[in-house]
């Protein structure tokens, strides 16, 4: 089961980090996004990724935004106050 999907009905925003390996890979995050959207279509979903060390991951995340799978994405180099402001505006 997808660990973040169980409380999706209570969430308004879900932000996850995408990693190159492990539980945070793009494919795993994509599965979680789909599961969460099935429970709560109104939840806003954002992904963080490292655009410097892994261009493939950042390309997949950007494409997910273009295709409407997620609502927003951030590069890890973005200042936290900017991230907070964007999330408040969702």
Textual characterization of the structure:
The chain has helices at residues 26-39, 55-66, 80-89; strands at 13-17, 44-49, 72-75. The protein has 90 residues and is an alpha/beta fold. Strand 2, helix 2 and strand 3 (72-75) form a beta-alpha-beta unit. The chain starts with 12 loop residues before the first strand and ends with a helix. The mean pLDDT is 88.
How is the secondary structure organized here?
Layout: E1 13-17, H1 26-39, E2 44-49, H2 55-66, E3 72-75, H3 80-89
Parallel strand pairs: 1-2, 2-3
Name the features.
90 residues; alpha/beta; globular; 3 helices; 3 strands
Write a short abstract of this structure:
The protein has helices at residues 26-39, 55-66, 80-89; strands at residues 13-17, 44-49, 72-75.
Which strand order does the major sheet show?
A: 1-2-3
* SS element count, helices: 3
Give start-end ranges of low-pLDDT stretches. Answer: none
Please state the oligomeric state of the protein chains shown: single chain
- How would you characterize the largest beta sheet? 3 strands, parallel
Q: Give the overall shape.
A: globular
Helix-residue proportion:
40-55%
Distance separating the two termini: 27 Å
Radius of gyration: 12 Å
